[in-house]
């Protein structure tokens, strides 16, 4: 049943007297006249618990667990050819299709920031002659080295320092000067590289 205005007013007045016993009747009537009612109730602030940060492995622990080691039975060139095909498609998409009229500087700039896992590279110059001619698929890129699997199914660890690498895709040949390339793959994506004509080893 719906209550009339007088019953509703009496109910609200009684409710306010019970809720705020210290308040005088005049003050309550004033509040009702202005139609602004604030109950004396304070919510307790919830204490925020400290979030536990997930602790990752240290560099020593990663080495001990051999997380980045490639097992000998998996060191086969043919096993990583599909990875190379995926990488080529990734670069084509990154460089808007690698059309013949694409600007070499644009392609070079994209390659410098691209993920190189799966790329086929060749050591073209080196201060250590034994590195020159090594060709293979990049399996791992670290800050200072490339781990490359060759067609002879040999895993080579080639330092970036003092080495120049060539990379070819769809007729575009790019040169990577390892001494200026000593960054992790994640760091390179935000790095601004300056394109230079010649750089000494």
Automatic annotation (TrEMBL):
The keyword Phosphoprotein applies. Keywords: Nucleus, Phosphoprotein, tRNA processing. Its main location: nucleus. It is found in: Nucleus, Nucleolus. One of its GO terms (cellular component) is ribonuclease MRP complex. InterPro entries: RNase_P/MRP_Rpp29-subunit, RNase_P/MRP_Rpp29_sf, Rof/RNase_P-like, Rpp29/RNP1. GO terms for molecular function: ribonuclease P RNA binding. Transmembrane segments: none annotated. GO terms for biological process: rRNA processing; tRNA 5'-leader removal. Gene3D superfamilies: Ribonuclease P/MRP, subunit p29. Component of ribonuclease P, a ribonucleoprotein complex that generates mature tRNA molecules by cleaving their 5'-ends. Component of nuclear RNase P and RNase MRP ribonucleoproteins. RNase P consists of a catalytic RNA moiety and 10 different protein chains; POP1, POP4, POP5, POP7, RPP14, RPP21, RPP25, RPP30, RPP38 and RPP40. Within the RNase P complex, POP1, POP7 and RPP25 form the 'finger' subcomplex, POP5, RPP14, RPP40 and homodimeric RPP30 form the 'palm' subcomplex, and RPP21, POP4 and RPP38 form the 'wrist' subcomplex. All subunits of the RNase P complex interact with the catalytic RNA. Several subunits of RNase P are also part of the RNase MRP complex. Belongs to the eukaryotic/archaeal RNase P protein component 1 family. This is Ribonuclease P protein subunit p29. The gene is Pop4.
């Amino acid at each position: 049943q719906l209550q009339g205005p007088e019953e509703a007013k009496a109910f609200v007045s009684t409710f306010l007297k019970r809720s705020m016993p210290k308040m005088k009747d005049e003050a309550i009537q004033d509040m009702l006249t202005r139609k602004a009612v604030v109950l004396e109730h304070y919510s307790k602030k919830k204490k925020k618990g400290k979030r536990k940060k997930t602790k990752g492995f240290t560099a020593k622990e990663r080495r001990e667990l051999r997380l980045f080691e490639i097992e000998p039975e998996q060191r086969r060139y043919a096993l990583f050819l599909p990875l190379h095909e995926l990488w080529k498609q990734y670069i084509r998409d990154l460089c808007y299709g690698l059309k013949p009229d694409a600007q070499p500087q644009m392609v070079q700039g994209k390659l410098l920031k691209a993920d190189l896992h799966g790329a086929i590279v060749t050591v073209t110059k080196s201060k250590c002659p034994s590195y020159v001619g090594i060709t293979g698929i990049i399996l791992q890129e670290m800050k200072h080295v490339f781990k490359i699997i060759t067609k002879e199914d040999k895993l080579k660890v080639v330092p970036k320092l003092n080495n120049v690498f060539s990379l070819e895709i769809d007729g575009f040949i790019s040169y990577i000067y390892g001494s200026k390339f000593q960054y992790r793959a994640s760091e390179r994506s935000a790095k601004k590289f300056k394109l230079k004509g010649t750089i000494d080893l």
